[in-house]
Amino acid sequence: MIYNNQVWNASLECRPRLVPGRRSGPDAKLSGHGFNPLTELRAHAQACGAYAARVEEPSEVPDALAKALKVVKEEGRQALLNVICKNPLA
Questions:
Q1: Model confidence over 67-77: pLDDT tens digits?
Q2: What's the domain range around 28?
Q3: Using CB atoms within 10 A of its CB, is residue 19 exposed (0-12), middle (13-18) or buried (19+)?
């Protein structure tokens, strides 16, 4: 399962360590690497033979997870759930 916040978080996490004294947090200007347009990870997984689904609403997660687990258990395939979360740069 990917918790996809639409940004490469490593750039956000390392900034305070690389630039001491630079403010970070919700009130600071963030300079991360956003994925716009959002990468379609589902197509990559399907091309490798995996089951894949994109989930955009929290209410969809339980059914999507149940389907993914069923595919893994019954078909022996890998599964990917791309769960779209809030973008911290938005």
A1: 999 999 999 99
A2: 2-84
A3: exposed
> What is the band of 65 on the pLDDT scale with cuts at 50, 70, 90?
very high
Nearest to 56 by CA among 86, 88, 87, 84: 84
Query: What is the residue-wise DSSP string for 34-58?
Result: E-SSPP-HHHHHHHTT-EEEEE-SG
- Distance (Å, rounded) from C-alpha 30 to C-alpha 49? 37
Per-residue pLDDT band at 27 (split at 50, 70, 90): very low
Please tell me the pTM assigned to this model. Answer: 0.63
Phi then psi dihedrals of residue 76, to 5 deg: 70, 20
Tally of structural domains, the chain: 1
H helix or E strand, kind and range, residue 64: helix 61-75
